[in-house]
Amino acid sequence: MATVLGSGERPAPAFLSRMAQANQKVICTAKGEDVRTVNVEYLLQKRLRIPIFQRRYCWYKEQWNTLLGDVCLVANGSKEKHALGRITCVLDNSGDGRLLVVDGQQRNTTCSLLLAAVRDVAATRHSEECLKLVSKLESLLFPGGLEEWMSARQPGTPLEEGAELGAAALVPTYCDRASYFAATLPRRASVPSVPDSGSWMRPMEAKLFFSDRLVGESDKHLVAVAEAVLYKLEWLLFPISLGEGHKDGTEDLHLIFERLALRDATFCKPHRATEYANMGAADFVRNLLLGSFAEEADAIHAYKTYWLPIEKSAAKVAEAKQESVASHLEAALEAFLKANPRQRKKANLAAAGVGGALYARFRRWLVDMEVATDPKQTTDTMDLLHRLHDFALQHFEGGPVRQASPPGLDAWSFGSTTKQPPALIPCREDC
Predict the structure, then answer these.
(1) What is the per-residue pLDDT across 325-383, written as a single tens digit (0 to 9) for each?
(2) What are the C-alpha distances in Å from 96 to residues 141, 244, 423?
(3) Cβ-contact 396, 317 below 8 angstroms
(4) What separation in angstroms does the CA of 29 have from each of 132, 251, 297?
């Protein structure tokens, strides 16, 4: 039976229904013997993957500077070790044995980019300790298959956006891959430092930031920084137990992602604001929609076909205006909700607690629109993503859009047999 929220009159969408039914006391579980303290080298050796529902790498100078400062305190002996916090992972069932990072991707990705910067600076030196350091860091960042990959490609060819490099110890989320691999591959790989135009550049910016800070340091300090990152930055590894047959949301990665974000935003927020970057409404809307698919293959198809083009269009506009991608994604969502007002306002859906007012409004709107309650029926969510995709792309190209025949929603209701979204026409900023 479909879960009903609030007044008892309106069924909840699949993702929100599962959220309401989730275990309210336990977010996820792990076997006691598997929870332990590990270092960065251990995780790189295990190899990591960032799933598609994770946001892009978004740490910036404040966070980079804070992490580097913590590392240097350890490197110069002022501090014995530094705790990075918890990293929540699950074993990837795709067959390559990687750990999927559910929580901790920003910190871990930054650590690997710092190591790449140390390697690049050390590669310009000729001392024996720097030569050994370069070899060691390269083998950790690319533990196997790099030579084969290099021999099979044309030198100087730009990296394809979203392409996976299996030789890497860490495979980022889709939009980060070109910039991340360009930043972490050794110079001898002959990869252009700037991926294709319009690519997300934050990982490369992070590596260059660290390189600039380290270029004047001694060989001894470079070695000390690398050892501090690899062996003295400590994680509390929390490997989620899946496959135990629990139906209470503790094995649903999309639910776990949002509930961990809520917990971290309220009870477990770091003391220093420069140790984290808040997630925006678009991050949670993406997770909500992709989390509505029962099969990962469907979620990946929906992401690549509909959501990814929205992010890429937002990134192009943001780059041209020197503004954040998140602000333009949220502006598009705001415009979408404005152009599609709620038709019924009887649902009493609790506030999300994360993602701000925009995400809360999107959740309520989604309930009103009667998106499918059966997670096996993906048509409605796919249609919604199709509709949002068309709206957002026109929004980024020529300003806000609205439905051709207000109120419009009756012409294209969720769950109907009509698969084509209604026509969209441009409108002025004040409409």
Answers:
(1) 889 999 999 999 999 886 655 544 444 455 578 888 888 887 777 554 455 555 588 88
(2) 16, 21, 44
(3) yes
(4) 41, 8, 25
Give the whole-angstrom CA distance, residue 90 versus residue 76.
34
The secondary structure of the chain in percent helix, strand, coil, rounded to multiples of 5, reads 50, 10, 40
Domain assignments of the chain as residue spans, ordered by start:
31-240, 280-340+357-399
Nearest to 137 by CA among 171, 104, 113, 164: 113
Q: Which two tokens stand for residue 384?
A: 């919604």
**Helix (H), strand (E) at residue 101:** strand 99-103
Measure the N-to-C terminal CA separation of the chain; round to a whole number of Å: 40
Quickly tell me which residue has 């990687």 as its tokens.
Answer: 98
pLDDT in tens, 238-268: 887 666 655 655 556 666 666 665 555 444 4
More confident residue, 129 or 201: 129
Q: What is the pLDDT of residues 161-197, one digit of tens each?
A: 888 999 999 999 888 999 999 999 999 998 887 655 4
How far apart, in whole angstroms, are the C-alpha atoms of residue 317 and residue 299?
26
Q: Say how far apart CA 67 and CA 106 lie, in whole Å.
A: 11
Q: How many residues does the chain have?
A: 431
Question: Whole-model pTM?
Answer: 0.75
Contacts of 185 (CB under 8 A, 6+ apart): 142, 165, 191
CA distances from 48 to 102, 112, 116, 286 (A): 11, 11, 16, 22
Q: How high is the pLDDT of residue 300?
A: 83
425 is written with which tokens? Answer: 């026409």
